[in-house]
Amino acid sequence: MLLLRYIARRVVFVVPQLFGIVLVSFFLVKLIPGDPAVMMLGPTASAQSLAELRDRMGFTKPLLQQFTRYVTDVAHGDLGTSWQTTRPVTEDLFQRFPATLELITFGLLLAVAIGFPLGVAAARLKRGPVRKFADYYGLLAGAMPDFWLALVLIFIFYTVLGWIPAPLGRIDMAVLPPPTITGSLVIDSLIAGDWEALRSSLGHLALPVLTLGVINAGPILKMTQSMTERTLSSDFVRYAEMCGLPRRLVLRQAVRAALPSVVTIISVLYGFLIGGAVLVEMVFSWGGAGQYAVQGVLNADLNPVLGFVLFSAVLSLVIYLVVDLIYFALDPRLRS
Amino acid sequence: MDATRILEISDLWVSFPAYRSEPVRALKGVDLSIAPGEFIGLVGESGSGKTTLARAAMGLVPPPGVIERGSVLFDGRDLARLDDEARRSVLGRELAMVIANPRAELNPVLPVGRQISNVIYYHLGVRRAEADRRALDMLRAVRIPDAERRFGAFPHELSGGMAQRVVIAIALSCSPKLVISDDATSGLDVTVQTQVLDLLKRMVGENGASALFITRDIAITAHFCSRIAVLYSGEIVELAPTATFFERPAHPYSITLLAAFSHSAELRARWTRLPDAAADALPAGGCSFASRCVRRRERCLAEAPAPRPLAGGRFVRCHFPVDESVAAEGVT
């Protein structure tokens, strides 16, 4: 009951939060130099046709009026159209966001699978090869740019070994994608029982997921390690040692106490990667949301940019709500 | 080994290495033994080495501390030299600890009933349901009202006194041979403190266990310890049967401690030497209490006193103990 009230209160606050985000991002995006009319009509267009197009698109109206117009449209679920794809931005984003989410979700799962156990092991064994490896790994993962690692991986696994399909998109051109249900090709292929689509989409996912996983395991490793070290030297662990509880149980309790911080860093990474995975998306021609937004910025196509910001904002708010709920589950002190 | 001793500490030296200076000696040749069923009070101010002594007794000298010399035998075994597994099977089962600040030291995310049950489950090897049942019995035994409901409560939902009772329940759940209480009631209200101490005394007594009560509050020890040891600066400066100690304290520091609880300002003033500039300049090698002693003489600055027996089964580490017989010859 308490929980429902809490969620309801959070959801109510979403509306003003989103309004604030639209307000800031609208005016910031408008500051980007570039004239969409010139982009659309090309360099040979006459001044008159340019002026007509600007007028038709509402760019000649006062900024405030443009803003209220945009907000009204958004309130009705209309994010405008992209002049590049000539399709509604909402439609474009609904197609591209699942691609990005599939990529970063699997990428982060891999990152957790690498970083978390390594962090716990490094915290427990203060000396020795595992700790050394974890230290170097953290340093290396922090120092390597993701697009560079992506290129290296492509070189090794595609060019040299040939184990992986060409890094172009999410699924082989020749393979028919499964009917869209969740938007994740892997899950949709599983639902459809389409093994060929599953194999192809997994093959295309492998390298970008590996890239994101290897790089983002760094911060997760560091956070897990330092928090577990801290809880291992905390009062309640010392007391558990005095009670002679088994080493494994004490370690489990310490790791359990470190979990909230690990959840925090994962959620931060998740929110960041929605836009931050764009370089990896580019390298693999992923066709994700980040790529879409960057193309929008480069071509003065403003609606996709604003739409992307809005989508990411909603997603981030959802993520932080989920994280808060996880905190509730993890820490009884927050419940009262 | 001596079969009549449950804890035998002999000539124990514990030191903590310090960066670019002499190691800090927390314990300097401590001798102390506890007989089965005996209650001993260990009194000392902050920094005197009380907690280090407790940790050393469990074989858990906090790192980077090291035992330089001497030994601690619990029931004939040196816990510091046991391997990790073997020590874990002794701690919490045969040698239990009652801690000072339970709301910070209990696991914050585990229901307290589960924390009692864990100790029973892992030490006694009973089934989980049986461990839970015994844990509930322990909660009742330590007089926690509405025990069934408190079983599922988290530490932060309990009052300080209640949490202290939980810790006592954990300590006694496996019927240990020795219970060490490290300043266990220091954070409680005076009335609650008395209740908890009475409970602890009664339950340890019913178990036939021995107890080492470490405290800053000398009045606590008066109630239920048969002997009192006074720790000052890592040395036991006086060890005496309780009645004798309160009637005829022999070490100037013991008197200072007792005077601190007295209502007589005159008495306090007579036995208190305020730290002065000269105190820092005292030569090394003398009595560790010399800088604060109102009775110090030339000899105290030059020579550290060895423990020596006095009448009535007492030991005192002082060249000029405050005692009629000795005082008569010493004071001129």
Q: How is this structure best described in words?
A:
The complex is a heterodimer of chains A (336) and B (332). By secondary structure, chain A is mostly helical. Chain A has 15 helices and no strands. In chain A, helix 5 (89-124) packs antiparallel against helix 6 and helix 5 packs across helix 9 (195-232). The longest helix of chain A has 38 residues, at 195-232. Chain A is globular and about 85 Å long. Chain B has 15 helices and eleven strands. Chain B starts with 6 loop residues before the first strand and ends with a helix. The A-B interface holds A 235-236, 238-247, 249, 253, 256-257, 330-333, 336 and B 58, 60, 84, 87-93, 96-97, 99, 101, 104-110, 118-119, 122-123, 154, 156-157, 170.
What's the topology here?
The complex is a heterodimer of chains A (336) and B (332).
Chain A: H1 2-30, H2 36-41, H3 47-56, H4 63-75, H5 89-124, H6 129-143, H7 146-160, H8 185-192, H9 195-232, H10 235-242, H11 247-276, H12 278-283, H13 289-298, H14 302-330, H15 332-335
Helix pairs in contact in A: 1-14, 5-6, 5-9, 5-11, 5-14, 6-9, 7-9, 8-9, 9-11, 11-14, 13-14
Chain B: E1 7-18, E2 21-34, E3 39-43, H1 50-57, E4 66-74, H2 84-90, E5 95-98, H3 102-105, H4 112-124, H5 128-141, H6 147-151, H7 160-172, E6 178-182, H8 190-207, E7 210-215, H9 218-224, E8 227-232, E9 235-241, H10 242-247, H11 252-260, H12 265-271, H13 277-280, H14 298-302, E10 308-310, E11 314-316, H15 324-330
Parallel strand pairs in B: 3-7, 3-8, 5-6, 6-7
Antiparallel strand pairs in B: 1-2, 1-4, 8-9, 9-11, 10-11
Helix pairs in contact in B: 4-5, 4-7, 5-7, 7-8
